[in-house]
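Shapes recur. One chain:

:::
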Amino acid sequence: MTIFTIRLFFIIIGAVVSYNIGLWFGEYNRMVAFKFALGGIIFTFLIIAIESLMKKASARNLSAAVFGLIFGVFMAWVVTGVIKLIPMDETLFASIQVGLTIVFSYLGMVIAIRGKDEFNIVIPYIKFARQDEAKEIVLVDTSVIIDGRIADIFKTRFVEGRILIPKFVLRELQQIADSKDSLKRNRGRRGLDVLNAIQKDTKIEVKIHDEDFPELTEVDAKLVKLAQMLGAKILTNDYNLNKVAELQKVKVLNINDLANALKPVVLPGEELEVRIIKEGKEQKQGIAYLDDGTMVVVENTKHLLGEDVKVVVTSVLQTSAGKMIFGKLGSIVNKENHK
């Protein structure tokens, strides 16, 4: 059932109920009944307009406001119960009771909304399920969607649980796809294609999450806050987000760390066969790459561009950007091509 259908049904019911009320008040005068029905339709349209204006309000804020309202009414009832013990005029007591109810309701709602992150009773995030069926929640960052490798990672089931893509991440991805810069635009569109491919895979549980934090401007800060609130992990390959999240005790799944961990272990003294493809920064150095993209820096091979050579590994350097292998020339594989 769509929202439009629900609204139409609400208008019809409002008109019918108002018509019957009009018949009763007008002593079965149909003209009066039709006026009531028209008033009922106008009233339902007013309610729908208010509901439309509230569509940007998050369910989390609304649930916090409802809790604050209930708490405020309860506190007003307690306080007025004490004041009732003091002898006073009934009219004065009624005025005090109404005033205190309004004041405590207002304070309760405001305090609850401001401190909503400290409440653990936020109804929209409660899921009744057996403990042995509980699933971890993984929030996806914009960087890994654009990266594209998550599609294959999800298919291999290395990442399990409920995959949530926050709406503010999707919004940032759309902004990148609409960028005037052609490089950014292509990256954004590739990210949207990757996202569509993931959503079409019925074996992967992916959902768009509506929660937003208007008071925060940066997507990274919103991701960290949402992860804290849901007890979720963040899937990213952004180095800065990785560090910020770790400082705030949020678990991070970094694709670059996974890729580096899967690279074959190379020890000093081992021999590799590579092709020198470009010059190195230092004098006489040559640069080669392994199949997984690992850079190999080889001494005294600047003159061997395009040649397949055997390299003896001298050292391995692990950096945040990846792994680098240093080695020295062992022998030339295709000597017949060497000039």
Summary: The chain has a mean pLDDT of 80. Residues 127-260 form a domain with the Rossmann fold fold (CATH 3.40.50.1010).
